[in-house]
Amino acid sequence: MYFVMAGIALLLLKYFEIGFVAGWSWWWVLSPFALAVAWWAWADSTGYTKRKAMEAMEKKKQDRIDRQRESLGMRKPNRRR
Fold first, then answer.
1. How far apart are CA 43 and CA 53, in angstroms?
2. Cα–Cα distance between 14 and 17 in angstroms, integer?
3. Please, is 77 exposed, middle or buried when counting C-beta atoms within 10 Å of its C-beta (0-12, 13-18, 19+)?
4. Domain residue extents for the chain
5. How many angstroms separate the Cα of 14 from the Cα of each of 4, 7, 18, 26, 68?
6. Cα torsion angle, 57, 62, 67, 72, sign
7. CB 6 within 8 A of CB 34
8. What's the CA gap between 25 and 60, in Å, rounded?
9. Longest pairwise C-alpha distance within the chain
10. 3-state DSSP assignment of residue 47
11. How do residues 15-67 score in pLDDT, each as one tens digit?
12. What is the pTM of this model?
């Protein structure tokens, strides 16, 4: 997402000829979009995206269980490590 935001910012700076970006080649201005595509392809092919989504769902589930236990007056289980 950061690559897309950087690409949009550079695109606007180049289009309106603002600052030092006005002198850059269009290849440099559009390169963050190519990096975003490469990142998303890598993240999807390695399972990174799915793993992060599963971790977020698991955290929400555990938070919900903890809230329910606290509302019932039960303490969190003591976990020894």
1. 12
2. 5
3. exposed
4. 2-71
5. 15, 10, 6, 8, 53
6. positive
7. no
8. 45
9. 65
10. coil
11. 999 999 999 999 999 999 999 999 999 999 999 999 999 999 999 999 999 99
12. 0.67
